[in-house]
Amino acid sequence: MTPASRGVGAPGAALRGHVTTGDRHDPHAQARAARAQPLLLHSLALFREVFAAVFTHCDIGTVVEIGVESGQVTEMYTGLGARRVYCVDPDPSPALRAALGDNDAVRLIEQPSPAALAGLPAAELYVLDGDHNYATVRAELEWILTRAPDAVIVLHDVLWPCGRRDLYYQPTRLPAEARHPDSADGPTIWHDELTPTGFVGAGAFTTATHAGGEANGVLTAVEDAVAAARDSWSLTVIPAVFGVGVLVRDGNPGAEAIRAALSPYADSSLLAAMENNRLALYTRVLQLQYEAAQHVREADTLAERLHSSRQQLDQLTRRLHKAEQRHASDLAALEEAHQRLAAVSARQATLRGAAAVIAELAGDAARRRVRENPITRAVRRVLPGRRR
């Protein structure tokens, strides 16, 4: 078989799907496409093929989207044929307002879910991507399963990390009894406990301190809501980008066709393996980023300590210099005093010598006066035998 007949390797060969391969003249096209993606893929916009299958097999006129990203996903619904999209977001950003304001088919509902659902007409498609915790998702599903049983429901984050562990956006509106103990630390693939090196919200959300058990996580909420429903519902889970679940009521028009269309994705061991690998790699990146930031903080602390030590050293050096100057001055003064003392000692020695000479001269003079004294002469004459 030649390269051309295989469809690969020949100049201009066509590939099915959305694969970016480049060619021998532009070998970096795939790398450029990879660079254009965020480091962490998270958007439902990546699942256009899944939504296209839903729109193909069901008449979707109205969509209710709970949890709005940037408006990109909303445009996808209208592009696929939705005539009205209600976007539920209690706190939209100015950028989101601007993005949604350009589409006449879109209505922004600035209320929290599930309370916002009661004021909206029943839809053919519900997309649940808001607060990823049991209490919120369970309440949303109970309302939809009861009041819009013919709808298709698409849920995001039905797998790790939120499938079996609650996440609470802050500040949370849930009462204390509807929440598990939570933490600012986040989950990681590499061990079961929360860690500051995992998926952390940095103030935006907290995570339940334990995983599993009852009333914990998005997937658990789906299972319990379906189990309590009057009708039979089937959940198809696509193991990619944190897991997307498609929930349809058995017997609804298009239900079997939707499940069949999604089966290649849901049954793909390749997708599941790639998702697990993606999560493992990304959480390792988070750990390395945390450790790098910790090293930077430690380096900053060491730099501050070094700067403080240098300041102290400079201060001690200045003090030593002043002490040396004082010491030199004291030495000079001491040398001067020594010289003065030497001079005084020399003068004292001179004076003592002069005094001795004077004393000797004075003694000689005194002896002469004694010898020349008349009485002395008389005594000498009287005592001739004594030496004179």
Q: How are the SSEs ordered, and which strands pair?
A:
Blueprint: H1 3-6, H2 29-36, H3 48-57, E1 62-66, H4 72-80, E2 84-88, H5 94-101, E3 106-109, E4 125-128, H6 134-147, E5 152-156, E6 167-169, E7 182-183, E8 186-188, E9 191-195, E10 205-208, H7 218-228, E11 233-238, E12 244-249, H8 255-266, H9 269-371, H10 374-382
Parallel strand pairs: 1-2, 1-4, 2-3, 4-5
Antiparallel strand pairs: 5-12, 6-10, 7-10, 8-9, 11-12
Helix pairs in contact: 3-8, 6-7
Region (Disordered): 1-30
GO molecular function: methyltransferase activity
Pfam families: Methyltransf_24 (PF13578)
Gyration radius over CA: 49 Å
Helix vs. strand class: alpha/beta
Secondary structure tally: strands: 12
Strand order of the largest sheet: 3-2-1-4-5-12-11
Q: What is the overall silhouette?
A: rod-shaped
Reading the helices and strands in chain order gives HHHEHEHEEHEEEEEEHEEHHH
EC number: 2.1.1.-
InterPro entries: SAM-dependent_MTases_sf
Keywords: Coiled coil, Methyltransferase, Transferase
Coiled coil: 299-326
